[in-house]
Amino acid sequence: MSDRISGRDYIQLRDFLSREFGLFFEPSKVTFLENRLLPLLAEMRLESLNDMISCVRTDFFWRGRFLDALTTNETWFFRHPRHFDILREDILPALVRERAKSRRREIEIWSAGCSIGAEACSIAITMHEVLQDAPDWSLRIIGSDVSPQAITRAHEGIYTGSEVRLLSGLLLNRYFMPVDDNNYKIKPELQNLITYEIRNLLEEPWPDREFDVIFCRNTMIYFKDETKAKLTERFYKALRTGGIFIPGATETIHWVGNNEFEREFIRGEYIYRKRMGNNEYILYQFVTSSDLLRALNILVKEHFEYRLQTITQMSHTSPKKALIVPIRFIDRVERLFSDALLKPLLRENVSQ
């Protein structure tokens, strides 16, 4: 086993990483690859990178260790604190005001590339601090990462003193329990806000869901520009209208399309907002109040954005309100209505 990666091995490794994970390492990163992978090769007791690639293709455990070696960097709670200042002072209060008007008291955030969960937990702490006096709100955080080992540790919820070093004594006592002199376990009431999942961002398709805020920081730095552009477009589509995308502090957006993000400069940082579009909606009017209630329950259960609007009654027994849904949901909403045998009396496009 050599202590260097040859030019031929580099090409084989580069092509495998690009094809399998979308990761890209330029020739200048060969020393980095040597430092990360050759010790792992010795640990696996294999003779060549070709043997390692064959093993990683089929062995779930070593696949995880391989990804950890390549992508895991030091992480800690409230890394780059200004992003969490923006979340606490600007994004969440605006969402609360907006949702209070529509009575849709829920907020969903995705931490994409969450590693061991420090970012997802930092988001959870921030949300809990902002909404601790509003127990009727539904708060949901998804933390995803390609590394099984990282997600296993995120599920355990135990962090070192170094990883929680930016937490004040108040927050540490409020949200963590000491395990020993240098380790702390996050309390269940906070951990329960987070759902962790193993996810390769390049996999097709992503789950059919939408978020109010997406964090994807220091994850796309491993990808080619065209891969970054593709992923940025997919993040755009996974956001609700007006939703916020937060990349790493030194990262730039690599996708420009017809529906590009609006860049906003807040507290010395750039964040990206999904354009509000042309404010097109679909108005659904139902024959009976019972049908309106069934339709409303479907939208609430499936976490769709909606509003109720007062209308002129078609008859003295018909509902006084109609249901308004953003036009981007039309296919999914009408499929759900059809499955429930719900037939709106009237459906029309409206602008608001």
Explain this structure.
It is a single chain. The chain is α/β, with parallel strands linked by helices and 352 residues long. It folds into three domains: 7-71, Chemotaxis Receptor Methyltransferase Cher, domain 1; 81-273, Vaccinia Virus protein VP39 (Rossmann fold, 3-Layer(aba) Sandwich); 280-351, Alpha-Beta Plaits, CATH 3.30.70. Helix content is 41%, strand content 22%. It is built from twelve helices and 14 strands. Helix 2 packs antiparallel against helix 4, helix 3 packs across helix 4 (60-71) and helix 5 packs across helix 6 (118-131). The termini are far apart. The relative contact order is 0.10.
Short structural summary:
With about 350 residues, the protein is of the alpha/beta class. It has helices at about 5-20, 30-45, 50-60, 60-70, 80-100, 120-130, 150-155, 170-175, 190, 225-240, 290-300, 330-340; strands at about 105-110, 140-145, 160, 175-180, 185, 195-200, 210-215, 240-245, 260-265, 270-275, 280-285, 305-310, 320-325, 345-350.
